[in-house]
Amino acid sequence: MPHSKRDGRTANRRSFRSDRRAIEGLPVRLVIALVVGVASLSVMMGMIGDIDGLAATEVDAQPQPEVTTPGEQSLDVAVLDPDGSRVADATVIVRSGSAQIDGVATATTGSDGTATVDVDPELGPNQPDGTLTVDVKPPAEGDYVDERGNTEVLVVAE
């Protein structure tokens, strides 16, 4: 009696069902591969995190005074890194927010990490208060960035 293809497939299924090694060995091998892969990835990510060239340091601007009144005046703005150290050669930019100034006021931090910016904020009619925004353009020779918002200067009517 000739063997049909159907009989051959049925015999293969029966032999596969009776072979316990294929069912037991495959998941164990996958688990081992997964554990080794996760451990390798962890080591590689640790190595990448230790490379200083890929990390950027956020700077923050701290204006003094933080609350002021309308009229001509100077703001002292300190530029700090996350460790609290002052950053020299950064450009401080003060712009109109809800309080108005003419144009944009800029200054560069000195060796002490502080810049003095001259502003003349004005409030609109019936406007009790407003803000001036402060941004920092970090120095070119560092790995600094200014991506988060900085402290705004509050201008309050007298």
TrEMBL record:
Residues annotated as transmembrane: 26-48
InterPro entries xrefs: DUF7382 (IPR055806)
Entries under Pfam families matching the protein: DUF7382 (PF24107)
Protein keywords: Membrane, Transmembrane, Transmembrane helix
Highest taxon listed in the record's lineage: Archaea
Domain DUF7382 intervals: 54-118
Protein name: Ig domain-containing protein group 1 domain-containing protein
Region (Disordered): 121-158
Organism annotation: Halorubrum salipaludis
